[in-house]
Specification:
Number of strands: 19
Structural class: mainly beta
Largest sheet: 6 strands, antiparallel
Strand content: over 45%
Number of domains: 1
Helix content: 10-25%
CATH topology: Double-stranded beta-helix
Low-confidence stretches: 119-128, 182-191
Distance between the termini: 55 Å
Mean pLDDT: 83
CATH class: Alpha Beta
Strand order of the largest sheet: 5-6-3-10-13-8
Oligomer: single chain
Order of helices and strands: EEEEEHEEEEEEHEEEEEEHEEH
CATH superfamily: Mitochondrial biogenesis AIM24
CATH architecture: 4-Layer Sandwich
């Protein structure tokens, strides 16, 4: 498999497959492809895994694309301005990503939903309740918002992040949700009630845009019909 990421802040990835090679994405995630690629729609792992994925912002069904001859090309495009980030996954490199980050992956990559340890904190914390775990072997592509900042955390080192700005992190990094302290901070600080706390060791990638906050700001300028 070969790939080319293009498009600047509105990116897409073109993947070149040889005969028998395949890649999968959520249903409806493909932009265009050449003629000799076969498509198969399934739940990829069974009905229960499909239902779990639907909670993380992905489709219950996945589409697998397999090349019938060499040098077939397929393109997947991002839905929002930002970056498409390729990550190589093996037993020593597994990742947790924000919900909805998964774009596509080779067939050897496993995708499943994971939950924060605290149901209540994750539920009211918004972005952090359901996440996506990537394991197995192969290359995956993540669709991320804005620009990325990579931080390497030492053992026990912590960073506090607005939940919508968490892009993805190594599985060795622990993840919790912390309540903002102080009456004035809660009601006038503008950061909400909760922050995500990431604790090392491991690398984390933070994104400069929170898509939920961006949507909230745009919503104020959308005309409404009050009749």
């Amino acid at each position: 498999m070969k790939y080319d990421i293009f498009g600047g802040t509105l990116p897409a990835v073109e993947i070149t497959l040889d005969k028998g090679e395949g890649i999968y994405t959520q249903s409806g995630g493909m932009a265009w492809m050449t003629d000799d690629i076969a498509m198969e729609t399934n739940t990829k792992g069974g009905i229960f895994k499909g239902l779990a994925r639907s909670f993380s912002g992905d489709s219950m069904f996945m589409a697998t694309y397999t090349a019938n001859k060499d040098n077939e090309r397929i393109t997947f495009s991002a839905a929002t301005p930002g970056e498409i980030r390729p990550i190589t996954i093996d037993s020593a490199h597994e990742y947790i990503a924000q919900k909805g980050a998964f774009l596509c992956a080779e067939n050897g990559v496993n995708l499943k939903s994971v939950f924060t340890k605290s149901f209540g904190a994750g539920l009211v914390g918004g972005e952090g309740f359901v996440l996506q775990e990537l394991s197995g072997n192969g290359t995956a592509f993540l669709e991320l918002d804005g620009s990325l900042k990579e931080i390497e955390l030492a053992p026990g080192e912590r960073v506090k992040v607005d939940s919508g700005n968490v892009a993805f992190f190594e599985k060795s990094v622990s993840y919790t949700v912390e309540t903002v302290k102080g009456f004035k901070n809660i009601f006038f600080g503008g950061e909400g009630l909760f922050l995500t706390v990431l604790t090392g060791p491991g690398k984390v990638w933070l994104q400069t845009v929170s898509i939920s906050e961006l949507a909230a700001k745009i919503r104020k300028y959308i005309p409404t019909n009050n009749n």
